[in-house]
Write a structure and sequence with these properties.
Elements lengths: L4 E7 L16 H9 L1 E3 L2 E2 L5 H10 L3 H4 L18 H7 L3 E4 L16 E2 L9 H10 L6 E6 L35 H30 L6 E7 L14 H4 L3 E4 L8 E3 L3 E2 L3 H9 L13 H4 L10 E7 L3 E8 L3 E6 L15 H8 L10 E5 L17 H17 L39
Parallel strand pairs: 1-6, 1-7, 2-9, 3-10, 4-5, 4-6
Antiparallel strand pairs: 2-8, 7-8, 11-12, 12-13, 13-14
Length: 443
């Protein structure tokens, strides 16, 4: 089989809140992709913060392993950009192009893309740039990165619905799982749904371009997001509300037929999957596993656990997690007594939660959840003597992973930020607008 084209199409802050995952959110283009491809129901990011999540996916390494501890717009940048998948694909004869948002390095020259399609702002027009690129005559297989920011908050709210369409009526909206059903949370979710509808419309332009140019069958489409919704207790948190992400893949190699796969999957598994599918030797630094045995029915699992972490978002809040099919264990490596509120985007839902004392909620250094009987991860079993053996096993497995991956973070050692990094004080309420001065280079 010839090397497939690859379209990596991704969003900000979408979690699994799209139609194929059972939500009343009209995303027909993403739904069509799911019905034609493969939906991974238990897919997770490696870090529920923007830049580290994307860096982990694109390097096939955990965030602390690739050195991406915080946000590119706050002064962090991938220290070894040559580990990005673009460099590997360039050497394998691919044409690589960036049509939208990347958020991994500060200097676009370090991305490794042969073609930077944006001229000016990337907040608009990524779908058109992608469509035009797809329509070109290509002598080599291509890797096209199309990033959208529609479901990222703009201030406290979200982007509007598609042009010409009515806003979602908040009276008939169900808020995200961690939240009470109130007029405020319904309104906030209704605005998110409008943004998701716009995201779907733009993604549909790219999907249609593949069909219109007759290359859909030989194009691997990877549709995903960086982490959970930008609501309290979701984005920047290691519960499934934060690390659970949509992952829908369509194309050659078995990614077809409307399959639904329940095996645990990490985004760091995508790089080795692409290598296996395209017949490329996998780089030595990869820490994930190919998904081909899952989609081809050779195995029900390619891993028995996923791992995730948080280091910096708007401020330092070091945490690690292991999740199996039955258990979730989360460990903090600071002495915090309360949540770092700057790590939660401002919103009307955040204001509501603060009015009810969310900012004074105690923080537990260890948490253990039974995700079968407690899928919302609301009841910490770490202090329950009935689960002492489970707790010991999960502690051991997490420590083993940290040792194997040379995790620099511990109770006595922090992940040092670069000199360029800017950060909030953990006692702040709002993230504010602290950005690295050269943020315009980030796109």
């Amino acid at each position: 089989m010839s090397k497939p084209n690859i379209v990596y199409i991704h969003s900000h802050d979408t979690g699994r809140y799209v139609q194929p995952y059972g939500h009343a959110i009209p995303t027909p283009n993403i739904q069509k992709l799911a019905e034609e491809g493969v939906v991974f129901r238990n897919s997770f990011c490696a870090n529920p913060t923007c830049s580290p999540s994307r860096a982990a996916l694109l390097t096939g390494q955990y965030a602390h392993s690739c050195g991406m501890g915080g946000l590119a717009n706050r002064g962090w940048s991938l220290p070894v950009p040559e580990h990005l998948i673009t460099y590997t694909l360039n050497q394998a004869g691919y044409t690589t192009a960036l049509a939208g948002f990347q958020h991994v390095v500060r200097d676009l020259k370090e991305t490794g893309y042969q073609h930077l399609l944006s001229e000016g702002s990337v907040r608009a027009g990524a779908e058109e740039r992608a469509r035009n690129f797809i329509a070109e005559n290509h002598d080599a297989p291509f890797f096209l990165d199309v990033g959208f920011g529609e479901t990222h908050r703009r201030g406290k709210g979200f982007d509007p619905p598609p042009e010409g369409e009515s806003k979602t009526d908040p009276r008939y909206v169900k808020p995200p799982a961690p939240f009470p059903d109130t007029p405020v949370t319904r309104q906030d979710m209704a605005e998110y749904i409008d943004a998701a509808r716009t995201l779907d419309r733009k993604m549909g332009v790219v999907f249609d371009a593949l069909e219109e140019n007759g290359i859909a069958e030989n194009t691997l489409v990877i549709c995903t997001t960086d982490h959970g919704l930008a609501f309290p207790n979701m984005k920047c948190h290691l519960t499934d509300h934060g690390i659970g992400i949509m992952l829908i893949v369509r194309g050659p190699g078995g990614f077809s037929g409307g399959q639904v796969i329940d095996g645990l999957v990490s985004q760091i598994d995508l790089f080795p999957t692409i290598c296996a599918l395209a017949g490329i030797e996998a780089p030595a630094w990869l820490q994930g596993n190919s998904l081909l045995p899952l989609v081809n029915g050779e195995s029900e699992d390619v891993r028995d656990a996923i791992f995730a972490e948080v280091n910096y978002h708007c401020c330092y809040e070091p945490q690690r997690a292991i999740r199996t099919k039955r258990w979730k264990y989360i460990r903090r490596y600071d002495n915090a007594e309360k949540w770092a509120l700057p790590n939660c985007d401002d919103s009307i839902s955040k204001t509501l939660m603060m009015e009810h004392g969310w900012g004074d909620q105690p923080v537990e250094s260890e948490r253990l959840y039974d995700v079968v009987f407690d899928p919302s991860e609301a009841h910490n079993l770490a202090e329950n003597p009935d689960y002492v053996d489970v707790l010991a096993e999960m502690r051991e497995r997490l420590d083993q992973w940290r040792a194997e991956t040379d995790d620099p973070v511990s109770e006595n050692q922090i992940m040092e930020p670069p000199d360029t990094a800017v950060s909030n004080d953990p006692t702040d309420i709002s993230p504010g607008d602290k950005h690295y001065p050269a943020r315009d280079m980030i796109i």
